[in-house]
User: Fold this.
Amino acid sequence: MPANSLAELLNAGNLGRLACESRRRQDIAEDVRQRLPDKEAAHLVAANTDEEGRLVLVMDAPVWAARVRYMARELGEDRIKVRVLPRGAVSS
Assistant:
């Protein structure tokens, strides 16, 4: 039986779906970073959409979350939720 390539293994089954979801979330975060001012963009930890279609942003500190909440309309998003990374959590 021929050995599968690493790419084939990574793209197969649950691991493939997980990799696809990870890329989707990275794309959303990059899009949001481009629309945020540099200071706020530097504090964005993650971005995603929830089951209701709202944009969900995770910031690394409450002060940055508050600033982003106030600029939600400037981001072109009417439905946005901004959260703060829990203390002790590790951001990437």
